[in-house]
């Protein structure tokens, strides 16, 4: 009896609210991604019911389950046109959102996004140069290769120019990015001036972003780059959490802050350049999604980065579905839609940050 009386009382298990919200968020995002993928693949001029889309997938995987498309061209339409586009939307959305989460962690600023280091503008300038000057030495891959290389070079240039005495200050990095974005903007204006009417239309359309015309060959190029980038940023998650304490505190616990910033910028450039190489500039995904995820899952990067990748895939898949079907027989630029949603959100974020800080002064 004495033993029973002295034994510590067993406390009932209490669920951690944040952990519960995180699990529910992952579950909801995964379910939304699956449903949206089935609906997006089956929606278009040739409608294929979601059950037949799922049946086509299962049969291609060797599972004799579910109905196959009844339309004679249904299966060919799914595998030649719709599935590559869905896969590319998932990859691009995941890459841009994960890159945005890392940028906000590296800069310690909720308004940071991949465009801050000039990746998108560098890619746009390089892609526009192939349009105006007619470079074709890599065949149909020339523009994508130039866009990818331009994005990487721009990001590394921003990092190199902002580095002084072996250190890189966040403010200098941001201001250098602003200067490079202004320079590439001027370069784009000059190329638009040089080009003929057709070239100007191509430059404008590329900057608006689109998933139209995506093929499996494009997906096969982008997928490994995005996979490497995502794996890389996931390995940085713990150090990004420590960096949130400040540079001095992070160094005190053994984080090489300079190396962390360099690796982060390179990985962000890789993810963003891979995303825009075939699809053009798609704005605001890297800004909006990490904030929405942070509201439910908290600021820890071990959860924030994968959840943002999942959320970005869902957002871009939904945006592409709207872009393809909002106007009959027309394909709206997806970058226009993301900016249409992202701009009001950015304004709200500015107002919210101002209220929390008291003032900008």
TrEMBL record:
It comes from Modestobacter versicolor. Its main location: membrane. Belongs to the binding-protein-dependent transport system permease family. FecCD subfamily. It holds the Pfam family FecCD. GO terms for biological process: siderophore-iron import into cell. The keyword tRNA processing does not apply. It is found in: Cell membrane. Keywords: Cell membrane, Membrane, Transmembrane, Transmembrane helix, Transport. It comes from the Bacteria. GO terms for molecular function: transmembrane transporter activity. It is a multi-pass membrane protein. InterPro entries: ABC_BtuC-like (IPR037294), ABC_transptr_permease_BtuC (IPR000522). This is Iron complex transport system permease protein. GO terms for cellular component: plasma membrane. The chain crosses the membrane at residues 83-103, 115-135, 141-161, 173-195, 265-291, 303-323, 330-350.
């Amino acid at each position: 009896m004495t033993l029973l009386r002295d034994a510590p009382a067993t406390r009932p298990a209490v669920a951690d609210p944040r952990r519960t919200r995180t699990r529910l968020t992952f579950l909801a995002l995964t379910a939304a991604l699956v449903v949206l993928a089935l609906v997006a693949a089956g929606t278009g001029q040739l409608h294929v019911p979601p059950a037949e889309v799922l049946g086509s997938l299962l049969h291609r995987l060797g599972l004799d389950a579910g109905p196959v498309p009844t339309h004679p061209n249904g299966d060919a339409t799914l595998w030649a046109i719709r599935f590559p586009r869905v896969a590319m939307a998932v990859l691009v959305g995941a890459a841009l959102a994960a890159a945005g989460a890392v940028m906000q962690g590296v800069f310690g600023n909720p308004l940071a996004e991949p465009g801050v280091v000039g990746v998108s503008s560098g890619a746009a300038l390089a892609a526009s140069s192939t349009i105006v000057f007619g470079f074709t030495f890599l065949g149909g891959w020339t523009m994508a290769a130039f866009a990818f290389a331009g994005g990487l070079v721009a990001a590394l240039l921003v990092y190199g120019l902002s580095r002084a005495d072996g250190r890189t200050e966040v403010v200098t990095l941001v201001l250098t990015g602003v200067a490079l974005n202004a320079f590439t903007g001027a370069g784009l204006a000059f190329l638009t001036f040089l080009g003929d009417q057709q070239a100007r239309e191509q430059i404008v359309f590329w900057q608006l972003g689109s998933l139209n015309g995506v093929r499996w060959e494009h997906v096969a190029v982008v997928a490994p780059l995005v996979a490497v980038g995502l794996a890389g940023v996931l390995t940085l998650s713990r150090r990004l959490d420590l960096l949130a304490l400040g540079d001095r505190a992070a160094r005190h616990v053994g984080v090489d802050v300079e190396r962390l910033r360099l690796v982060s910028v390179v990985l962000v450039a890789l993810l963003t350049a891979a995303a825009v190489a075939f699809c053009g500039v798609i704005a605001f995904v890297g800004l909006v999604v990490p904030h929405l995820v942070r509201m439910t899952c908290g600021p820890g990067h071990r959860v924030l980065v994968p959840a943002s990748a999942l959320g970005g895939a869902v957002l871009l898949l939904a945006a592409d579905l709207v872009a393809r079907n909002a106007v009959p027989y027309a394909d709206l630029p997806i970058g226009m839609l993301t900016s249409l949603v992202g701009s009001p959100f950015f304004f709200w974020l500015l107002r919210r940050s101002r209220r929390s800080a008291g003032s900008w002064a």
